[in-house]
Design a protein that fits this description.
The chain is built from eleven helices and eight strands. The protein has 322 residues and is of the alpha/beta class. The protein has three domains: 35 residues; 145 residues, Rossmann fold (3-Layer(aba) Sandwich); 114 residues, 3-Layer(aba) Sandwich (Rossmann fold), CATH 3.40.50. The chain has a four-stranded parallel beta sheet. A four-stranded parallel beta sheet has the order 6-5-7-8. β3, α4 and β4 form a beta-alpha-beta unit. About 2% of the residues have low confidence. The structure holds zinc ion (ZN). The site of zinc ion has 7 residues, from loops.
Length: 322
């Protein structure tokens, strides 16, 4: 039928027309966007959070948290897609060390790319990895070079502030137009960090004890040092093991009982099984502390920050140090 043919042709033309329009317009639009957007990639959560705070209010920022929420940072390995993201970035921020060994490989492949690369640990006060009281020896650790730095740099307020200032200066370099905004945002965030620091400090000033017990790994040495606390833990900061030996558990239980320590800690992304075992055995309470080694998916989706997670620790610390 003739009419059918005509209708069909009209529809076909319309579809082709729309397709052509979207292809042209769509790709053009994408091109403009990718030219304007300032692309930032951070391996770890703390730098991601600080960059998010510094660039707040600038809609032309594309910020990627590479390792991603809810994941074990120590077992991360970049995918091919991650490598493309880093290669296309204006700024790539990483920590390096044992935790981010993969970064060496990435950096090698970046030689010919126009990416600002920033090892944020260079801008923080770093300490050598310390032995943690009670922590199990790790088999893999034996081969590790002596004097490796502790890469969990973000947990002390002074390092957080140093990281923010360094990231802010880098943002001014990359995107000078928005310098004022970045400085203002950074100063606001630093003020909030001082407030959290003061709140924690007042708990420290009124503490009845100074030892924290982790029925878990302990990636918070900078925090411990900053507040002049002592710590015993089942594992050191970087351990990927989750099953402590009977003697480790017995050792920690002994300290908890002897010193009548009220709280056994476990960290984010852990169900606290070991801490609960120790707590049950000793009459203590098992509580989760946020080390910001990573965030859970829920916390990430709720927009939790260094500040809000540290604030969550305040109640935990006041119980643990009583
Ligand atoms: Zn770690």
């Amino acid at each position: 039928m003739k009419i059918r043919k005509i209708v069909f042709s009209i529809i076909a033309f319309a579809i082709i027309g729309l397709l052509v329009f979207f292809l042209l317009y769509g790709s053009k639009k994408k091109e403009i966007n990718s030219e304007q957007k300032v692309k930032l990639v951070s391996s770890n959560f703390a730098s991601y959070d600080f960059l998010r705070a510094i660039t707040k209010g600038n809609n032309n920022i594309e910020l990627v948290f590479l390792i991603g929420p809810g994941k074990e940072a120590h077992s991360y390995d970049p995918t091919a897609q991650d490598l493309i993201k880093i290669g296309n970035a204006d700024l790539f921020v990483y920590i390096g060390g044992e935790m981010e060994k993969w970064a060496d490989k990435v950096l090698e492949s970046m030689n010919d790319k126009n990416v600002n690369i920033m090892c944020i640990a260079d801008f923080a006060d770093t300490i050598k990895e310390q032995e943690v009281d009670g922590a199990e020896e790790e088999k893999e650790k034996e081969e590790e070079e002596e004097g490796a730095f502790d890469e969990h740099i973000w947990s002390s307020p002074n390092n957080a502030i140093k990281m923010i200032n360094a990231l802010e200066e880098k943002m001014e370099e990359i995107d000078a137009e928005n310098s004022d905004l970045y400085r203002k945002n950074a100063d606001e965030y630093i003020n909030e960090i001082h407030e959290v620091d003061n709140r924690i400090q007042s708990i420290i000033d009124n503490k009845k004890r100074d030892r924290l017990i982790f029925g878990d790994k302990m990636p918070m040495q900078y925090f411990i040092n900053y507040y002049n606390l002592k710590v015993s833990a089942a594992f050191s900061g970087c351990s990927t093991e989750t099953e402590p030996s009977a003697s480790t558990i017995t050792y920690l239980e002994k300290i908890v009982k002897e010193q009548q320590i009220p709280v056994v800690l476990y960290i984010e992304l852990n169900n606290g099984r070991v801490a609960k075992t120790i707590a049950n055995e000793t009459g203590a309470e098992a509580l989760q502390i946020q080390t910001l080694h990573n965030v859970s998916l829920d916390d990430f989706n709720n927009g939790e920050t260094w500040i809000s997670l540290m604030n969550r620790n305040i109640e935990v610390l006041s119980k643990a140090l009583q």
